[in-house]
Automatic annotation (TrEMBL):
GO terms for molecular function: carbohydrate binding. It comes from Microbacterium marinum. This is Alpha-amylase. Residues 1-31 form the signal peptide. The lineage of its organism: Bacteria, Bacillati, Actinomycetota, Actinomycetes, Micrococcales. InterPro entries: Carb-bd-like_fold.
Length: 599
């Protein structure tokens, strides 16, 4: 099937820019009034300007290939490009038929064209051109053996020998390998063959950019001379097979299209995406020495959506330190592998450490980076947390129920921004403040209440004496025994809920557990007799106070360890309450058994 020949930009694939190069689209900023460029165009005898369909375009270096202004050449050869802003311009004369393209003043390429400086409102006349018949370069290329040409597209570009930045004209290569570059002025050129392989098939291995004569750079390329207007120069060229670098990526395993491997050799580069198993093959490399980069977040449309250069081979942070692969004479290099989870044993991806619960503090562990300044940004459910740009984050209540992650930013080699993202935590749990109630005394029962947690949280408990876990004490209550005497008691409550982080909180410590006893009364319960309160065995150093009762009613002034019975006590039962105190311990009151009724 015949391919349509067309002018294509070597380094610009964007459709808008391509069309701008072809048809001289005018920059939207061009005003309706301003400076102007005018002149007269002539054509050789036998070719009318109407038939040639000539257009004149004005360009600035900054906006090329967008034309700042343009004008059709009238039948009498005159033209005027109006509405130009002050600046420096270069002017091209583009014929759609029969005539060679050229730049003012009788130049082949933009890089050698004369400049035209305009001030505001200036009219510059006399920018004339005497166009000549177009010359052609024809030829045929041969692809390396085994190439499937159905999905291979090659374009031949003609460059002036004095301008490597702008091609003069181009022609597409047909499936049989033939091509034609037209609209050329007589002169000396260098021919570039640029190939794009859309098949991604393993048997296609063509150097993507090579020059006529077998060179891989402009300075070394052979020259081709076109001697006469209307003439034709025939070429033949066999495209070179390229060098190959291959390997396997392990560690991080996103979809295959999200990992890109690049081979770098000055202006010559090659790229490949991994397959589902992490394997890759970079083909079509020119001979030379390469460094290899491993990139993450490579978009499925072939563009880097969130560029992250993870590392260089072997375990290097930057290109200057990367191991060099020499393909000057070797045809291929296998085993160029990478584990993207680590660099020299240190994880590359950031992680979140700490306590991801409301009121807790989390910290960003940045992963392996070169010696660069790092910046941080915390996110909750993918949305940046306001003013959360430090390496740590104390989690406010507003983040309850959300998932937290951190991004780490750095400006690394060649002003190349990198961003790496941690995995998200589970949803943030609201943690309550446990409180212990009950008397901290041997024989008493303590109760812990969890406090206010995320609704639906389930709890487990662990009691501690002097900071040491009490074996088997895993309920919400604890009966204090003699082994707990003299220790402060705490309770840790752990809360769990599906999809949420696990949280734990510990109560405030009680006072030390007091050892107590039930007091006894000695003496005869008869009027005129003396009763004596005996406290029993308490925590050593305890101090006691007393209160006597007659049939449950406090006896006024009866606050000593003894009580002499009077007629007012007759027929009443007597008890005594002993209160023990000691600094750092719980104050405990214990009441004796009743005596018989006083006689």
């Amino acid at each position: 099937m015949k391919r349509v020949t067309r002018v294509r930009a070597i380094a610009i694939a964007a459709v808008a820019i391509l069309l701008g190069s072809m048809f001289g689209f005018v920059s939207p900023a061009t005003a309706a009034t301003g400076a102007s460029i005018s002149g007269t165009v002539s054509a050789p005898v036998g070719i009318s300007l109407a038939e040639a369909d000539v257009e004149v375009r004005a360009y600035t270096e900054a906006d090329y290939p967008w034309a700042a202004g343009r004008s059709k050449v009238a039948a009498d050869g005159t033209y005027t490009i109006a509405g130009l802003e002050p600046g420096t311009y270069k002017v091209s004369f583009v014929a759609r038929n029969h005539l060679a393209w050229e730049w003012w003043n009788d130049k082949t390429a933009m890089g050698e064209a004369s400049t035209i400086a305009l001030t505001a409102g200036q009219t510059r006349a006399g920018i004339n051109a005497a166009l000549v018949r177009e010359a052609r370069i024809t030829g045929k290329i041969t692809y390396p053996a085994g190439t499937d040409t159905a999905d291979v597209f090659t374009t031949a570009y003609a460059y002036s020998v004095v301008d490597s930045a702008h091609y003069a004209a181009s022609g597409d290569v047909e499936e049989d390998g033939s091509f034609e570059i037209s609209a050329l002025r007589p002169g000396v050129y260098k021919i570039l063959y640029s190939t794009h392989d859309y098949s991604d098939r393993a048997n296609n291995n063509i150097v993507q950019t090579q020059w006529h004569g077998g060179a891989y750079d402009f300075s070394s390329a052979a020259t081709v001379t076109v001697t006469a207007p209307g003439g034709s120069t025939a070429l033949t060229h066999t495209l070179s097979s390229g060098r190959v670098i291959s390997g396997t990526i392990t560690g991080i395993r996103p979809p295959a299209s999200y990992l890109r491997v690049g081979a770098h050799n000055g202006e010559n580069e090659g790229y490949a995406s991994t397959d589902a198993r992490g394997n890759y093959t970079i083909r079509g490399l020119v001979p030379g020495k390469y460094t290899v980069s491993f990139d993450l977040n490579y978009g499925t449309n072939g563009e880097t959506s969130s560029s992250e250069r993870r590392e260089w081979w072997q375990d290097k942070h930057s290109q200057p330190t990367a191991t060099i692969i020499d393909l000057t004479s070797a045809a291929s290099r296998t085993g160029v592998d990478a584990d993207l989870d680590t660099i020299a044993g240190k994880p590359t991806a950031p992680s979140v450490t700490g306590t991801p619960v409301v009121g807790g503090t989390v910290k960003a562990s940045p992963g392996a980076w070169p010696n660069v300044e790092l910046s941080y940004r915390w996110l909750a459910d993918g949305t940046p947390v306001p003013r959360a740009t430090a390496a740590t984050l104390k989690i406010p209540g507003s983040l309850a129920g959300k998932r937290v992650s951190v991004e780490v930013f750095a400006m690394t080699e060649a002003n190349f921004w990198q961003v790496r993202s941690s995995a998200t935590t589970e949803r943030i749990l609201t943690v309550g403040s446990p409180a212990v109630s009950g008397a901290a005394a041997v024989g008493a029962t303590l109760l812990v209440k969890p406090g206010a947690w995320t609704s639906g949280t389930r709890f487990t408990y662990q009691w501690y004496a002097a900071g040491k876990a009490i074996k088997g004490a895993t309920k919400s209550t604890l009966v204090l025994g003699t082994t707990h005497a003299g220790t402060a008691i705490t309770a840790k409550v752990t809360g769990t809920k599906s999809g949420f982080t696990t949280g734990a909180a510990t109560s405030k410590a009680t006072l030390k557990v007091a050892r107590t006893a039930t007091p006894t009364i000695s003496g005869t319960a008869s009027v005129g007799k003396r009763l004596t309160a005996k406290p029993g065995t308490w925590t050593s150093g305890s101090r006691f106070s007393y209160q006597w009762y007659a049939s449950g009613k406090a006896i006024v002034g009866a606050t000593k360890s003894t009580l002499t019975l009077t007629k007012s006590h007759k027929a009443k039962t007597i008890t005594v309450k002993v209160t023990g105190t000691k600094s750092g311990y719980t104050t405990v009151a214990k009441t004796s058994a009743k005596t018989r009724a006083v006689r």
